[in-house]
Amino acid sequence: MRALRQALAAVVLMLAMMAPAAAFNPDEVLDDPALEARARSLSLELRCLVCQNQSIDDSNAELARDLRVLVRERLVEGDSDEEVIDYVVSRYGEFVLLKPRFSMQTLLLWGAPVAVLVIGVTVIVMNGRSRNRAAAAAPGNDGLSTAERAELAKLLKDREQHS
To answer: pLDDT by residue (tens digit) across 141-162?
Structure first.
């Protein structure tokens, strides 16, 4: 029984270590749980400009901390989530968003995978068609059996004799 408890404790400890650790400080947490939940949600959408592959919620960088505080200040002032995001984007640019919006500036970002897919499918189809044409044009590759070829040769020979 003791071994089972130790194994269970080890599993719980490993799971706790695998959970992402939030980098926010306790002094950043808002008193209102609803506002804090909104702040955490927004923090997960914003990129740390120092770390670049982490949200500001996960980053320990000083700039990330400043952005977390800024998000919370804007929420306390009564901004909606969209207004907070717009404010941060106006100051730091679209790059601050972990999931960029669709706009003329991000058209290439969103359109490139589709364009590459269309070009790839087109190349594959064109290559297949040219191979089919080459195979059909190859001598002895007309799709006829030996008996059909013999019959065709006989018909052509008879036609030449009657001409």
So the answer is: 666 778 888 888 898 888 888 8
